[in-house]
Amino acid sequence: MAKAYRDELVFVPLGGVGEIGMNMGAYGFGPERSRKWIVVDCGVTFAGPAEPGIELILPDPGFLEENADDVLALILTHSHEDHYGAVLDLWPAFDKPVFATPFTAAMLTAKRASENIVDEVDVRDMRVGKPFSLGPFTVEAINVAHSIPESCALLITTPAGRVVHTGDWKLDPAPVAAPPTDLARFAAIGADRSSPLALVCDSTNAMKDGTSPSEDEVGATLEALIAESPHRVAVTTFASNVGRVISIARAAQKAGRKVVMSGRAMHRISGIARELGMMEGIEPFLDQNEYKALPRKKVVLICTGSQGEARAAIARIAREEHPEIALNAGDRVIFSSWAIPGNEREVIDIQNMLIDRGVDVITQNQALVHTTGHPRREELKALYDLLKPDLLIPVHGEAAHLEAHAALGRQHGIETVVHARNGDLVRLFPETTHFPGEIPVGELYLDGNILCTPDESGVKGRRRLSFGGHIVVSLCVSANGEVRSGPDYVLEGLPEVPDEEESLSLLVKRVVNGTLKSIPPKRRSDAEMVQGALIRSLRGEVSAFWGRKPNVTVFVHRV
Predict the structure, then answer these.
(1) Rounded to whole angstroms, how far apart are CA atoms 18 and 13?
(2) DSSP code of 176?
């Protein structure tokens, strides 16, 4: 008898579940053999010290490529890099629409222009409170407060059941330049018990008690810090945090100061916000070439570089390398941000350079100059109470965040909590079932202009080079084993201390010459044997002298 295939609603996290960043998830509906898929978000994460030379890390879309004919669309919750940063690299290959709010769509257009990307994507308008259909899915964007305009949760409705995919959110009662999270809509969704509901929810701050401070409170702190400063004030923050930029600008205007803006990302994103009517009542910002003409008491500088980026404005100012902007003793710099894990050292170095010059540096450790865009535990519980979900899947977090969120959900009475990770397949409805590791997932590296797998990237070799340096030896050997030319040497990345009795360069020459003399002339004509002997000798002798094994390349040419 033929097997009956039934309609199911499934969720597959392809990135962002078990890590911070690189968010990408797929929802499938239908029988197993003919599911239709929608994709939510397509983000990046930033490479760390373990990936030298790599700029960005992207989720591997291999699973979606295998099901490309059944992929209906990509839906973006907002335009932070960890949620939309991979769209222009990955999505053109699918030739399927991208649904985004006007601000997110404008950010994609600006990103494509600034990075000279040729490939286009079909961006379609998504409006809060206006559901749209994609095959068996009905999708509704719901406004949530976050640290970038037009952030949305998604209500995904199918014949088998519903999902609220929160994206990034918080319960901010007084956000700046944006409406608060739509609690009434969440309450209405929770009151509708006609079909079961799953909650796929942000876990970033699930380990923190209480509620997140409001953006309005940060604005009040910035206003006081700017008003009391006797000299210049510079503020560095995330360029995407339009609400924060507006708070700084309002504080500057109230203190009778002009706002100077430095950094391409700042200009680009603020320009988009102004074009979309988000900066009504905010005076036009001045460019950095007008900075020197302003009195010290009459300027507020908003600049890029809150994450310690070496080429960003605040780093160049700290190194006294900026062509237009300088800060003096008595000026004030406010880091209205937090350091993303992995960036702490670079940020601290910039702060120390400024402090050494007598600049007054203020961070979130001294005053409420930054607040998160993610919910703490009391906010999570408030959302549970509104939605009353049958099922919880914590996402957007490392293992510790996810497990803390799962425990909180169970403590609060959610009947089913799924401990998912990237590559798991979770059947949400009709009966919840968890299939760990069911779907192949991975990462892609953006290496310069090349998109490649980790194995293709050569990063392992770079790590070896960074640890052990590189010795290159080249020589020419005749058919009778006579050395006709060389040996010539190149040493890269090895210490050279001239006061030592024997330097590494002298050691290398001695080892090579000694090894060659130890090989009978007839055998020296065997290039492969000579090459192997030199590599073994060099690695062993240099390791004994230095304490590290170098990378060794030997070229033996037959003449």
Answers:
(1) 10
(2) S
Dihedrals φ, ψ of 389, to 5°?
A: -70, 150
Query: Nearest 5°: CA angle at 399, between 397 and 400?
Result: 90
Q: Are 384 and 180 in contact (CB under 8 A)?
A: no
Q: Kindly state whether residues 285 and 299 are assigned to the same domain.
A: yes
Boundary-marking domain end, from 362, 387, 414? 362
Alpha helix (H) ranges present in 321-370?
344-356
As a whole number of angstroms, the distance between CA 56 and CA 443 comes to: 10
The Cα-based distances of 53 to 56, 316, 495 in angstroms read 10, 21, 22
Q: Is the same domain home to 322 and 438?
A: no
% of the chain at pLDDT higher than 70:
99
* Structure confidence by residue, pLDDT tens digits, 96-150: 999 999 999 999 999 999 888 878 899 999 999 999 999 999 999 999 999 999 9
Is 428 a domain residue? yes
The string of pLDDT tens digits covering residues 195-222 is 999 999 999 999 999 999 999 999 999 9
Instruction: Provide the pairing of β-strand 71-75 with 98-100.
Output: parallel
Q: What is the DSSP letter of 397?
A: B
Beta-strand (E) ranges in 244-290? 258-262, 286-287
Which two three-digit tokens encode residue 82?
């960890």
Query: Residues 220, 167: one domain?
Result: no
- Tokens representing 124? 């379609």
CA dist 382 and 145 (Å) reads 14
pTM recorded for the entire structure = 0.91
Helix ranges (DSSP H) in 341-458: 344-356, 377-387, 399-411, 454-457
DSSP secondary structure code for residue 68 in this structure: G
Q: What's the length of the chain?
A: 559
Which secondary structure element, helix H or strand E, spans residue 105, and what is its range? helix 102-114
- CB within 8 Å of 366: residues ≥ 6 apart: none
CA distance 28 to 465: 44
In the chain, how many domains are there?
A: 3
